[in-house]
Amino acid sequence: MKGRIGLALSWHEFVERTRDRWVLVISVLFALLAVGTSLYGRGAEADVQMLTGPSLVTLATLFVPLTGAVLGHDAIVGERERNTLGLLLSLPASRLEILAAKFVGRLLALALAVGLGLGLAALVAGGDEAPILMQLFVPTLILGAVFLSLGLFISTFSRRQTTAASLVVALWFLLVFFYDLGLLGLLIFTDGAVSTETIARLVFSNPAGLYRLEMMELFAGPELVDDLGVAVELPGTFVRAAMWTAWTAIPLAMSALIMTCRRTQK
């Protein structure tokens, strides 16, 4: 019974999120820009690994985290404001299962959005370039899953949906834009006293920065990473997998803990 309830909730979340106008707007914009980037690279007869791929990485770094955060921000607080959270929690399923169903359903919607954008870009590129571009799908979806998890966490402790929306947008700005600017400011303020290794480790600790460097290395090789000023090698595969798992699992675990501790819900 519980398994069927979880599947039903996941499917319901997926269907509802595909109708969300904000998610649709961001997804369509990402798809159009991805197609435009692919068309430009094709028209310029540029190497997909030097132009189209890195350009799509930049687009994905901007749009996919925002889409994931927006998908997660109303998962719990939205139910609370609609006075349906009590009904949802009355189902014969644990709070962890309900949270997991919401995460999975919204992750499927995110996968559809990412697949649409990258799939259209790969279709336009055609030839041998399409499989290369589709290598972005799984890493990009993992990046989106991290921000979806963070959005769910914000949703569990927020009292109002508008507050949750403001927080996820602020989080997006912080990790995608201001984080790198802060590191640059740190270098300038300390007049280079902070070592390159320390800056590199700080870049790796940010999911957006780690994704960007991983994909740039995939398309253009370690030489481009060195040109960007990151002279330290990327962490090993196992360490990176552990980092991505932690970024996704810890916010979900904290969300489950908050939901478990709050026995009385409105």
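[next item in queue]
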Amino acid sequence: MTFKGILVKISSFGIPKGMNISSIEKKQIIFYNQAMIIGFFATISQIFFVWPFIGAFSLSYLSITAVIGICIYFSSKGYFQITKTVSLFFIYLFGAFMTTYLGGAGYFHVGAITIFLFSLIVFDLKKEKIAIFLGLGLTMFSLFIGEFGLFNAPDFSSHPFIQVSRITNILSFTCINFIFIIFIIKLNLKTERELSSTLEGNEILLRKLTATTNDLIENRQKLEETIMKRTSRISSQRNVLEIQNNEKEVLLQEVHHRVKNNLQIIISLINLQRTKFEDKDIEEALSETQNRVLSMALVHQKMYQASNFTEIGLDEYIAQLVDNIQDLYLHKTHQNFIEVERSLTIDLETAIPLGLIINEVVTNFFKYACFPGDENSHFKIKVRANKNGSFNFRFKDNGPGFPERTDIETVSSLGLRLIKSLVEQIEGQVKFYNDNGAVYELTFRKKEV
């Protein structure tokens, strides 16, 4: 490493890497390190120029060089605040001592004032006022000792080597300061060039950032205009869709209402036709047909009464189906239990076949398991939803049950054949068996809406 490289490295001692410090603090550390280098060589040179006056006692200057060396080392370890105070006040005290010992010849005005100006630079004027005032006091004290000869300081003004010593002293200071001033100027110029380059780069980045910001502002304005236009267009389209949706809802409501009314007319016609026959079998068959049509009419009634025209609540639907069937068999006393979750819904395409199935099952109960005067007759309907999305429908009564060896595939009963056909229509599965009464179990899925 070259001498210049060593000086550059020493100048950067104590500047923390990766930490945010102000440029002023950084310059204070660099100035301190550079001044300590000058002081180090200056004090060594003083040994030779003070030797003619005090002889071996001039070696006491080695104490300053030692302190300066130690302070430079600890400053490189990051203890700048401590080392600057220790080094500066040791120099002050040593200067005061040497002035007392040598008089004004040992501590010239320029040296004292220079050290004080040095302290003004490295100490913070706001935070370290005590140190600055103390340094000023020591400087004035040393100058008073030299000027007024306090403490009986010896006078070397008539010493034969005084002129030679002063000249060589001045030359040494001049040479050392000249070398380091040139070095410091070059170092600072280099720093300024780097700073200038950095500032120029920052200006370029700032211009680019400003241009990008302006572009972003312009694009944002365009985007806001586009969003406003599209929002206005979407709002208009939404209004149109709301109008069309309301019209469709009214139309669907009217369709369901008219279908229900037409089915009611059919029910009325069947009722009129039923009164013309005296045969109980024919009358019963017409009543069952009437009830089947009524179950379909009930679906459409629920549809136009609900706000959702695609699904109806399964609990109310089953309860009203059962009520309609009970109205035809008021002469038969019975009890019924219906367990359906209120949240379950079913679509139109599944509701009609399911309603007809329930109609057949409940009608069979009144025909074959409920007898006049039997107050213990009852049935239970339970519907639950499975995790896979399917439904389980279960009907159980306490009647005599199905005849032995009843097979839904070969049964001749119209009601059971109708149930089989309707189950296939909703793609479900049905089974029936006896368990202290007739049991129907149906598994099915509602159509996706």
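[queue empty]
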